[in-house]
């Protein structure tokens, strides 16, 4: 990355102030909160996220707008030409193109999401205004290590000497390693539960740090875990201390933030026609044990408020911990219908997923495809709450099918 960026004239040194976001869960939601709060304040923010769900352009927002097809094509061709055929990954060339776009268009901030890990990630070539590490859990162990300490060490690789960093809610083992790395590089850490906190009280979000207390509306995004993600964003803004961003802007941003495939209830579309009237259709791309826990908790709480049977339509990749994810739903889901994610070479076969679900005490059956799975789910009485889940790659296909859109054809590890 450093060699290619040097050939391109170092666009990574010509960026607006950068908020660099790493972590296992909550990165995308934290980025979304920051982006919407800044928009509420009338600021222009670049944003870089991955993977995309339906269209590749989702990855690169330039001054708040999705990058155009013409600009994306020209930038990628420029990077390929300068690279001169040398080995480079899909994510590296994409990141270089994004940096070029961001360096050529004025904006107030760049919100930059890490692709994988942190220490060796292609994005880790910048000098951030502030770093953010969201909740860490087990994921990508084949690259990051098989303990929380090892994974946290890789994520903490984005911490920079003398720079502030927001540390979200963490398991003790992960937090200890982040603190160790932070001390070594002399980063200034602002740690959840120690230097700041966010929690729900009387139907409001309360944020508290040394500057005082904020009484805010609950986020529009569903689930108790979104209180933590919103807290990450608010803590970041408090450290930035930009007078252009007021408490009113934070409140407005929390109410307006949307983020597809994160406990998203699907409205009218092609897929809703396949399920009976009165049922609910939900989508979530969470795919690791921590995501399974918060998702199961969210749907358990939803059931307490409005009871109806939960039917899961579940697909997953073999790079994920299948058993730990589905085990979270024991006693919560009434049925699990498994599918093989189409056109993904790492997809777990539907019959293997069904075996795993049964091993955790869940009633499971297979379906040949998504449409068939939804029809099978529709036989549940009374009208069910249907949750399609287990993979962002499955979520992308669901959104494309629901909106009758054509997906950008990038699959597998390349989409990371």
Query: What's the count of strands?
Result: 17
CATH topology of the largest domain: UDP-N-acetylmuramoyl-L-alanine:D-glutamate ligase
Q: Name the structural class.
A: alpha/beta
Distance between the termini: 16 Å
Query: Radius of gyration, Cα only, in angstroms?
Result: 21 Å
How many independent structural domains?
2
Which homologous superfamily in CATH is the superfamily of the largest domain?
Mur-like, catalytic domain
Q: Helical stretch count? A: 14
Strand coverage percent:
15-25%
Q: Spatial order of the strands in the main sheet?
A: 4-3-2-5-1-6-7-8
Biggest pleated-sheet summary: 8 strands, mixed
Key attributes of the depicted protein:
8-stranded mixed β-sheet, disordered C terminus, 2 domains, alpha/beta, UDP-N-acetylmuramoyl-L-alanine:D-glutamate ligase, globular, Protein-Tyrosine Phosphatase, Chain A, 6-stranded mixed β-sheet, 17 strands
Word description of this protein:
With 416 residues, this protein is α/β, with parallel strands linked by helices. It folds into 2 domains: 255 residues, Mur-like, catalytic domain (UDP-N-acetylmuramoyl-L-alanine:D-glutamate ligase, 3-Layer(aba) Sandwich), CATH 3.40.1190; 152 residues, Protein-Tyrosine Phosphatase, Chain A, CATH 3.90.190.20. 37% of the residues lie in helices and 18% in strands. The chain has 14 helices and 17 strands. An 8-stranded mixed beta sheet has the order 4-3-2-5-1-6-7-8, with helices on both faces. Strand 3 and strand 4 form a beta hairpin. Helix 2 crosses helix 8. The longest helix is centred in the C-terminal third of the chain and has 17 residues. The C terminus is likely disordered. Its cofactor is Mg(2+). One of its GO terms (molecular function) is ATP binding. Its EC number is 6.3.2.12, 6.3.2.17. Keywords: ATP-binding, Folate biosynthesis, Ligase, Magnesium, Metal-binding, Nucleotide-binding. This is Dihydrofolate synthase/folylpolyglutamate synthase.
């Amino acid at each position: 990355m450093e060699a290619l960026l040097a050939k391109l004239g170092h666009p990574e040194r010509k960026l607006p102030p950068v908020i660099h976001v790493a972590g296992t869960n909550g990165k995308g939601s934290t980025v979304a909160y920051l982006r919407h709060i800044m928009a509420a304040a009338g600021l222009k923010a670049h944003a870089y996220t991955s993977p995309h769900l339906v269209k590749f352009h989702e990855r690169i927002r330039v001054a708040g707008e999705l990058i155009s097809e013409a600009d994306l094509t020209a930038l990628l061709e420029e990077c390929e030409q300068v690279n001169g055929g040398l080995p480079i990954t899909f994510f590296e060339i994409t990141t270089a193109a994004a940096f070029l776009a961001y360096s050529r268009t004025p904006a107030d901030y760049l919100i930059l999401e890490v692709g994988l890990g942190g220490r060796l990630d292609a994005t880790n070539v910048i000098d951030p205004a502030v770093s953010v590490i969201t909740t860490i859990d087990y994921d990508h162990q084949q690259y990051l290590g098989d303990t929380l300490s090892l994974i946290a060490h890789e994520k903490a690789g984005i911490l920079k000497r003398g720079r502030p960093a927001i540390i979200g809610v963490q398991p003790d083992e992960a937090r200890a390693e982040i603190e160790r790395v932070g001390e070594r590089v002399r980063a200034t850490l602002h740690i959840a539960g120690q230097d700041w906190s966010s929690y729900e009280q009387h139907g409001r979000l309360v944020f508290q740090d040394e500057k005082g207390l904020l009484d805010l509306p609950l986020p529009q995004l569903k689930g108790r875990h979104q209180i933590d993600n919103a807290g990450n964003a608010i803590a970041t803004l408090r450290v930035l201390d930009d007078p252009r961003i007021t408490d009113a802007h934070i409140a407005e941003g929390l109410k307006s933030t949307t983020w597809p495939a994160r406990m998203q209830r699907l409205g009218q579309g092609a897929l809703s026609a396949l399920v009976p009237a009165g049922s609910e259709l939900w989508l979530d791309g969470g795919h690791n044990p921590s995501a399974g826990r918060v998702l199961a908790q969210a749907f358990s709480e939803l059931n307490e408020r409005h009871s109806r049977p939960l039917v899961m339509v579940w697909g997953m990749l073999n790079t994920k911990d299948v058993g730990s994810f589905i085990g979270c739903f024991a006693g919560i889901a009434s049925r699990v219908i498994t599918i093989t994610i189409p056109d993904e070479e790492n997809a777990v076969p539907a019959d293997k997923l069904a075996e795993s679900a049964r091993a955790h005490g869940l009633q499971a059956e297979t379906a040949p495809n998504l449409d068939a799975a939804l029809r099978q789910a529709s036989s549940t009485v009374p009208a069910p709450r249907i949750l399609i889940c287990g993979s962002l790659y499955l979520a992308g296909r669901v959104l494309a099918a629901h909106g009758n859109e054509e997906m950008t054809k990038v699959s597998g590890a390349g989409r990371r």
